Amino acid sequence: MLTPRKDGRLLNAAVGALRNWRGTTAPIEVSLSEVAFVHVTKPTDSSCQPGWFPDPLPPLRTPLALHRDENQPLWLTFHVSRDTRPGTYRGRLDLETDMGRLRVPLAIQVYNFALPEETHLKSALGLGAGFINQYHRLTLRADQEAVYEKYLKNFAEHRISPDSFYDYAPIDVRFTGEGTNRHAQVDFTRFDPAAEQ
After folding, report:
1. With contact defined as beta carbons under 8 Å apart, do 13 and 97 qualify?
2. Contacts of residue 121, Cβ cutoff 8 Å, sequence gap at least 6
3. At what angle do helices 129-136 and 141-157 cross, to 10 degrees?
4. Are 162 and 154 in contact (CB under 8 A)?
5. Is the Cβ–Cβ distance between 80 and 110 less than 8 Å?
6. Per-residue confidence of the chain (197 residues) as pLDDT tens digits?
7. Beta pairing partners, 110
8. Residues 34 and 81: beta-carbon distance below 8 Å
9. pTM greater than 0.85 (yes/no)
């Protein structure tokens, strides 16, 4: 967490190689995100308070404004390759600001197990295109679909199943005929690839 004594900017952030005690580099990928804040003006219920709350984790983009006496956390996500040997891996996070440079030591403990490639935990987290479009102020259909795909990708990376994945790939149903000869024609052309993905 960065808490500067004066206004400034984070100019660059990078994680160096992570190595074990032998000096062997680990196949560990690191992604850096900004912990962004949402200003809640109308709490959901009486258990909540108005104010600024950390919530979204957009990819870190520099330069990032830093404000005097305000906390600016960074979020590091480590993706450990399945063939990484167990043990402790050490490296550092290098931060460059317009006020100077910082080196933050890192230590990652890798355990002797791997999660199954296919998840068997049932989950269903709400994911609605309408709320996403409203939050991101998206009006063009191409932008809406591209951002929705990013949400689906993020869900998959974190082993979360959305309760709906087909906002832009519905099952098309068309009714033909009259009375007792009325039939439904069901078309899965758009739905099936989305379900497979």
Report:
1. no
2. 159
3. 110
4. no
5. yes
6. 888 889 999 999 999 899 998 888 888 999 999 999 989 898 888 888 898 888 888 899 999 999 998 889 999 999 998 888 999 999 999 999 998 899 999 999 999 998 887 877 787 888 888 888 998 899 999 999 999 999 888 888 888 888 888 888 888 888 888 878 888 888 888 888 888 87
7. 87
8. no
9. no
